[in-house]
Amino acid sequence: xxxxxxxxxxxxxxxxxxxxxxxxxxxxxxxxxxxxxxxxxxxxxxxxxxxxxxxxxxxxxxxxxxxxxxxxxxxxxxxxxxxxxxxxxxxxxxxxxxxxxxxxxxxxxxxxxxxxxxxxxxxxxxxxxxxxxxxxxxxxxxxxxxxxxxxxxxxxxxxxxxxxxxxxxxxxxxxxxxxxxxxxxxxxxxxxxxxxxxxxxxxxxxxxxxxxxxxxxxxxxxxxxxxxxxxxxxxxxxxxxxxxxxxxxxxxxxxxxxxxxxxxxxxxxxxxxxxxxxxxxxxxxxxxxxxxxxxxxxxxxxxxxxxxxxxxxxxxxxxxxxxxxxxxxxxxxxxxxxxxxxxxxxxxxxxxxxxxxxxxxxxxxxxxxxxxxxxxxxxxxxxxxxxxxxxxxxxxxxxxxxxxxxxxxxxxxxxxxxxxxxxxxxxxxxxxxxxxxxxxxxxxxxxxxxxxxxxxxxxxxxxxxxxxxxxxxxx
Length: 475
Fold this sequence. Notes:
Layout (H helix, E strand, L loop, with lengths): L20 E5 L13 E5 L7 E4 L4 H12 L4 E7 L4 H18 L2 E7 L4 H8 L5 E5 L7 H11 L3 E6 L12 H8 L1 E3 L6 H11 L3 E7 L6 H13 L5 E6 L6 H6 L5 E3 L13 H8 L7 E4 L10 H12 L5 E7 L1 E4 L3 E4 L3 H14 L14 E4 H4 L3 E3 L4 H13 L4 E8 L3 E2 L2 H17 L2 H4 L5 E8 L2 E8 L4 E3 L1
Parallel strand pairs: 1-2, 3-4, 3-6, 4-5, 6-7, 8-18, 9-10, 9-12, 10-11, 13-18, 14-19
Antiparallel strand pairs: 2-7, 12-16, 13-16, 14-15, 17-22, 20-21
Helix pairs in contact: 1-2, 6-10, 11-14
Pfam families: Glycos_transf_2
Cofactor: Mg(2+)
Protein name: Glucosyl-3-phosphoglycerate synthase
């Protein structure tokens, strides 16, 4: 459908620092209109509704951004087909992603792996009223390119050309580059023979440590799955570290014949604290493995990929010293069945804090995930809080000690496990804030160790106070 180009909401054409666009329909456009110095948008016309830019990189892609910014678009979705040539991926980051984040209020970048552009358009077309593209290399390719899109898409198509000038690829955008090159999928490491070969060549011993507290319903399947991966030669040890479970967790674990320790009995001369961080600290004393991995024992949907996926990047790439899992999850909330999404403390607390104060960690999808692996020598240099803040403290220190590019994240698939109610999440968030503050005491001071909640109902007030004393461990 041809819409009037006069309705295109283009602003800023009279400003000296804004590029001037010639807006033409595909029927009006001629190859000779593609002047080497000007900006041209060839379009089916403006439509209200969802808009996406399908971009590769370079001056024509940048011209699309300029056009949309002048057209009043504030929230932009950019869709990118992954490149086979690494330099083109870098060009996309420097000429599209970085400028877009400066030009628009919010930007969502979607990397796709569709076999062809036509497949991509068929998949996403129904979601958008308008799709914009950077023009092909030469003017004679514009109309054939438009014909390919029109066969698969019924909305408004716009193809944008910029002036033929040289552009320098910005070396910035490290986080975007890191996300693309240090984010893996467990399926990338699903060939046991390959992992065994890398492990043998590198001569590394691997231990999986399973922290537990009252997980008798799920711990057996977690151990069974870990032992299955051990059988194929990727894991050397599977050990349970229990925090005084009052149910049958310990008995179930012992029935599988693996070593089982109570964390308070490990190095008793060091004393003992409650908390997950304490269990992780004590666990380092029961193994001499070169690579230590922790996997939670409350996971109902445990699968072998949780183990080989987490370990795969470290076994295949000696530059990777720390690996953190992330998940697509519904989370099982005991009071209300299945809740889609999860990661509530991450989205409400950790991610805003990271972006505000620790932007170098902003590429991590689930920075609070408890499934992680690290080289022993790096772990032994860390200062560890005994509480729920241990995952955040480990991530911060891993990047400080080894550098961002020595760390990675791996999609381990769907996880279903118990989650906390809102009070439990508040307790967890408070402990994480304590840890973040104490890691930079000169900036934030020493945090208070009491969490107060004030309730008001039926004409009366109630004040509840809960203490969270914070202790730190060093090796």
